[in-house]
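Chapter summary example.
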Amino acid sequence: MTYSGPAEAGGATTAHLPQRTPHPPVVHRNPTVSLVIPTLNEARNLPWVLRRIPPFVDQVVIVDGRSVDDTVKVAKAVRPDVDIVLESEKGKGAAIRAGFSASTGDLIVMIDADGSMDPAEIGWYTELLSSGFDFVKGSRYLTGGASDDLTWLRGQGNRALTGLANVACHRHFSDLCYGYVGLRRQCLPLLELASNGFEIETELAIRAALAGLRIAEVPTHELNRLSGTSNLRTFKDGWRVLHTLVKEWSLWDSPTAGAMAESMQRVHYHEPPVEVSRAPEDLAALLTPPMGV
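The structure predicted for these 293 residues follows.
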C-alpha cells in the first residue's frame, strides 16, 4: 500500500485540546504495533533491518520520496506487505510525521533504516507501552546500553544537551539525542509535532515531558551503520537541537496538566531475535527474479 501527501500527524494546530491529562491510558490486552522507518538512499541496509523485525509487529511503514536508489523497490521485495509513504518534503522530522499519520497500530515505534538500531529490541518498548507507559525512549547510557558509533564530539554534545533538557523540564533523561522511540498512538495529538529535521527527536522527548506523559527509558545498543555515510551533520543539527530545546521550553504551551514523568520500569522480555547475516545487501541478486518466474 502506498500513500502520498503532507505530514499531518501531530502537526501544529491553533486549537488546543481541553486542559486535562491523558491518564489513565487505554491499555489494550493485545495492542497492535506499527513500525515507522524513514529512509533516504538506504537500499543496501534496509534488507537487514526488515528481516530483523519481530513477528508481532503488525504494520511496517517506510517513508521515502527523495531516495535516488532502489530503496522502495528493495523494501517491497523483502517485505511485500510493507506500507510505502511518499513524502516529498525534506527532513527526518517531515518523514516521521508522515509515518505517524499513516500508522494504524495502538503502539508506534520508530527506528532508523541504516542498521544502527536493532529491530530485535522493539519488544522492550512495546512491553512498557502495554504496561501503561505513554512514551518509551532508548538510551545508550543506561546499564546494558552501548554505542559502536558515537564519536567523542557527538557524545559530549549529547551529554550537554541532555543536561540542559533535564534542567529545563525537571526530568532525568539520560540520552536526549537518540531516535529509538516508542509511544502510544492516542498520545500523538497531545504532542502537536511540527519539526522537519533531526530535531524531531528532541521535540518528541521535550513535549512528552512537558505534557506529563508517563515516560520510561530502556537500554539500547547502537550499532555501526551497515554501509554508506550518515545524513547527520554534527554542528548544524546540534544547533537545531539546541534551538528546539530552548523554543519548546520557553514557548510551547502544553495542552495537558504536565504531571510528573514516571521512573524507568524493568520488564522481562523474551523474544528470540530473527537471525540475519549483518552485511550490506547484494541488490542485483535481491532484485533479479528467479529463473522461470
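To summarize the output: The chain has nine helices and ten strands.
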